[in-house]
Each structure stands twice: as structure tokens, then as C-alpha cells.
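Posting this for the archive.
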Amino acid sequence: MPTTMEERVLLLALWKKEDDESLRDVLAMLESSQLFSMKEGKRLVKILKNEGYIEEGALTLKGITAAKAAEQEFKLP
């Protein structure tokens, strides 16, 4: 399971993105919301790729599972 909040938010954003949005679009959106810089976002993507959560700019089954867990974690009661 991704360890940082930023990693979990990134996975959740990738899971919820529109079909016409790219990984770069998601990174730009998160950068504009000041979650992290583009450089930091690219570093996080690299980590998540190495851990098997992202492949070819999309979530793997492992990534989808982690994104769903993050969604539950961030839901307000």
C-alpha cells in the first residue's frame, strides 16, 4: 500500500480521471492545487510504477485496489 498521502491522492486522482485526461493532465491538476510540484509528481509516478501501481500511464489492478482503499480512507463519515 502506498505510504504517503500524496501517493494515495495521486492514485485516487488517476482512478477518477476522465477518459480524455492523461497522466500529465492529472499531475498538472494536482500541481495547480498545490499538493506537490510537477517534479515531485513525476518522482511519485516513478515510485508507483516501480511498485506496480501504474503501467503505461494507467492504473494496474493493484493500483485500482489501492485507489479504492484511498477513497474509503478519505471519505467523511
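Helices lie at 5-16, 23-32, 38-50, 61-74. The beta strands are 54-55, 58-59.
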